[in-house]
Every structure is written in C-alpha cells, then in structure tokens.
C-alpha cells in the first residue's frame, strides 16, 4: 500500500512537471503568420481588407479585425475557426480573408490617419492555451471622391474614328481614363502633350469603335488609391459611318500558298481537323489565330510612351492604291460556299512588289517579327496610346526599341501571312483598338481634333523628336 502511494505521488509529480513543461513550451509558440495584402496605404468609402493567415494545419481559434483612429477602436470583424462568407481556404495551412473596412462598413471613420490591427490565435494544449500574433498597417483614410472637369471643347467623333480630350482630374495622384461603352482608354499627364500643368491636367485619345452605336455612353472616370471614384459625361457629337461589305473568293491555289507556312510558323495553333484539309485550317487561322494576334496587338498598348512622339498628320504609303478599306465586312467564299466572316480592321495599300515601307510617323519600334495572319509585322508606338501597324512585309529592317523618324524605311512590302498579293496592311491603333486611318492622314483633322485643343489649353504641340 505504501509503495503504491509512493508510486502515485511520483506519477502526480511527473505529470505536474510534464504539464508545467508543456504549459511553458506552448507559451513560447508563435501565433499565426498574418499577411495584410490590401490596403497598402489608403482606406476609402468601400475599401476591402485582403489578408492571409497561415498556421500549421490551418487551425485557428479566432481572427479579430479592428480599425483604430484618434484613440478609438472600431471592431470590424471576428472569425472563429473561419467558416464565414468573408473567408476561404487558400491552401491547407492558409486562410484567405476579405472583409469591408471602409466608411460604408465603419460609419464613424473620418479623414486622416488610422491603423488596421489584425489579431489571430491558434489553439494549443488541447485548447487550454492559445498562441496569439498581431499585425498592423498604418493607413490614410481618404473619403472625398476625385474631382473632374472637362477643359477642351467641340468633341466630334465618327463611328470607327478617334477623338481627343483635355480634362482636369484632381488630386494629382488619381488614375483616370475615358470609358466608351465597355472599353477604356487611359489618361496621360498633359505635359506629355506639351501642356504645362501641376499633374492634374490630363489628355486622352479615345475611339467610338466601328461596331459601337452612336448612343454608346462616353464618360471620363477618375479613381484614387482608396477606391473612391468619380465620373462625368463627355459632351460630344457622334456621326455615323457606312462600311463596305465584300465577298472574298478563297481559291485552292491561295490556300496552298498561305496555309502551310502559317501552320509551320505557329505550332501552338490548334487545328482540330485533318491538316490536309486546307479549308478548315484556313478558317481556324482566319478566326482563332486572328483573335490571338489581336490580343498580342492590344497588349502593345500597355507599353505606350506617356509623351507625344509626333507632330502633324501621319502619312499614307506614298503613291499607293487602296485595295481594301477600314472595317470592310468580309464574307470568305470557297467553291461557291460561304466559309467565314470577318471584319478587316485596316487599309490594304499597294504600289509595286517589295517597295520600301515608310513609317507613317515618328515613334519607337515595339514589335518587329512574324505575327500570324499579318506575316512579318512591325508595330510602332507614337505615345499617348497611339500606335501603327505594318503587316505582310517581305523583310523587316528595324528592331524593337529603335527610334524611327517619319518616312524612315521599316522594311519592304510583301505577301506574308494571309496576304493575297504584295501589299501593305496598315492599321492605326488607339489604346489597342483599331481605328480609321483616314483621319490620321488628314492634316485638317489633326489640327482641329488634336493640335487646336493643345493650343487652347495653353500648350505647344510637341515637335517631332
């Protein structure tokens, strides 16, 4: 009996020591890792907190979110072993939390400094203890929306054409753009167009696309880093334009000449039919590859210079004959059967075989390589979202990054890609969208639609670099 009591006392002592050790050990364990991903600097009307909490096994006791300002604490959210609609598992050991913390969610927030405080705890020792960690983020609460004012006048835009606007968006650190229907065109600091200012004066080129109707809403939008947004409708007059319709006969000889080289140059293109079926392969090239090439072209708009790199009108290829115009609605016919329908978004210009192709304006070479349906292709950036494309070249004489002057040779005309004969495919682009080149070739249009507005805003149209 006495031996048993000694054993029992020893066992209790051992358990006490083990429990004490476990208690001390758990007290030294780190709490969950907290990564506040958003907001980085500002909180606005509808800001959403975006964070990831990570811990072994993904087990949590709770996550508390509080916003502190001027000595007051505003509890925003508490999650117990997150299963709320604002949370989701990112992976086994992580939890992803999104929760509103702007003024709409916390009405007592005011303009000024604030601090986001996130506390997270994970259970230890069968839930008897917790390991707690805290992360903070100092932010500025910004509640007033940006201010917008249109400075230029007489905005006339043709269907398929381009316009230019000068406006003010303040404060100077807001992003702004022109939205035409569901298409957006970025605004640029007006100093890039030769207009002096304090960073609030902006300029933008925008387009009413060939397939947008005259009633398509056109608005200027500004958004600050806190997510506050303002918009104003642009007073403009839109004019309809009629576009040609044509039927293009696709012969077996043409298919045999163009399809195999394009397939060889684009091995990633998925042709689901028998490769020997040139008609089916052509339709895939004319539709799927055209779309892929279009995405590549649109991506070049992100690389545009914030400075206007040209002065005056663009130039058409000298002594060229127009073979096809902008926005020609084409039906492709093979052996009397309609096989495809596409819109031709450029001008086909022909002189004689392999003539030098001159840059329509000064700019920087963005792309100079084979590009699917366009064959050997060059894209120039002219700044402020304006670019020009030269397709079907037999040779290319410039490289990406090179600065070229108006009239400088980019290569020679040819019949690469989907060209039926030796010619230049020329496209004007605004914000990555194809627009009618005729306006850009017109000195009167350039003076009235662009240069006049720069002058009226107190600027001087930039000289060609």
Structural notes for this entry:
The structure is a single chain. The protein has five helices and 33 strands. Helices cover 17% and strands 41% of the residues. Mean pLDDT is 90; it is low at 16-27. It is globular and about 110 Å long. It has helices at residues 2-27, 252-265, 278-299, 437-441, 443-456, and strands at residues 33-38, 42-43, 48-54, 62-69, 72-79, 87-91, 94-100, 112-124, 129-141, 147-150, 156-158, 162-170, 175-180, 183-186, 188-189, 201-207, 218-223, 229-233, 237-239, 245-249, 321-324, 328-334, 337-344, 347-350, 356-358, 363-370, 376-383, 386-393, 395-396, 403-404, 409-412, 424-430, 433-435. By secondary structure, it is an alpha+beta fold. The chain has three domains: 32-141, Immunoglobulins (Immunoglobulin-like), CATH 2.60.40.10; 147-239, Immunoglobulins (Immunoglobulin-like); 245-435, Glucose Permease (Domain IIA) (Distorted Sandwich). The strands form eight sheets. Strands 21, 24, 26, 27, 28, 30, 32 and 33 form an eight-stranded antiparallel beta sheet that branches. The chain has a five-stranded mixed beta sheet with strand order 2-9-8-4-5, covered by helices on one side. The relative contact order is 0.11.
């Amino acid at each position: 009996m006495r031996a048993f009591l000694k054993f029992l006392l020893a066992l209790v002592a051992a358990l006490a020591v083990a429990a004490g050790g476990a208690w001390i050990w758990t007290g030294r364990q780190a709490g969950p890792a907290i990564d506040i991903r958003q907001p980085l600097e500002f909180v606005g009307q509808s800001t959403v907190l975006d964070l990831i909490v990570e811990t072994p096994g993904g087990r949590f006791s709770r996550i508390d979110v509080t916003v502190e300002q001027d000595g007051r604490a505003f509890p925003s959210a508490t999650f117990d072993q997150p299963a709320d609609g604002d949370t989701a598992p990112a992976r086994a050991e992580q939890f992803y939390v999104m929760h509103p913390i702007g003024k709409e969610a916390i009405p007592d927030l005011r303009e000024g400094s604030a601090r986001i405080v996130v506390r997270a705890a994970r259970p230890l020792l069968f839930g008897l203890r917790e390991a707690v960690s805290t992360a903070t983020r100092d932010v500025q609460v910004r509640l007033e929306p940006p201010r917008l004012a249109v400075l230029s006048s007489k905005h006339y835009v043709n269907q398929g054409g381009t316009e230019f606007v000068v406006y003010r968006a303040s404060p100077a650190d807001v992003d702004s753009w022109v939205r035409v229907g569901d298409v957006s065109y970025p605004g640029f600091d007006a100093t890039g167009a030769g207009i002096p200012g304090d960073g609030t004066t902006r300029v933008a080129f925008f387009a009413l696309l060939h397939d947008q109707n005259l009633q398509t809403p056109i608005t200027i939008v500004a958004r600050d880093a806190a997510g506050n947004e303002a918009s104003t409708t642009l007073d403009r007059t839109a004019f309809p334009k009629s576009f040609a319709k044509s039927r293009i006969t696709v012969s077996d000889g043409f298919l045999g000449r163009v399809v195999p080289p394009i397939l060889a140059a684009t091995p990633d293109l998925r042709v689901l039919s028998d490769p020997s079926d040139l008609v089916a392969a052509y339709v895939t090239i004319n539709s799927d590859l055209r779309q892929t090439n279009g995405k590549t072209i649109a991506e070049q708009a992100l690389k545009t210079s914030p400075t206007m790199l040209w002065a005056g009108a663009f130039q058409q290829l000298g002594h060229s004959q127009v073979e096809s115009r902008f926005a020609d609605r084409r039906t492709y016919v093979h052996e009397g059967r309609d096989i495809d329908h596409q819109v031709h978004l450029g001008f086909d210009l022909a002189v004689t075989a392999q003539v030098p192709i001159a840059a329509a304006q000064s700019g920087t070479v963005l792309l100079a390589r084979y590009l699917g349906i366009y064959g050997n292709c060059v894209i120039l950036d002219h700044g402020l979202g304006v670019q020009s494309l030269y397709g079907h070249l037999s040779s290319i004489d410039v490289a990406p990054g090179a600065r070229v002057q108006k009239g400088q040779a980019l290569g020679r005309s040819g019949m690469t890609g989907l060209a039926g004969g030796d010619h230049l495919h020329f496209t004007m682009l605004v914000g990555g969208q194809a627009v009618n080149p005729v306006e850009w070739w017109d000195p009167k249009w350039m003076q009235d639609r662009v240069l006049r507005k720069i002058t009226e805003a107190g600027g001087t149209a930039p000289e060609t670099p």
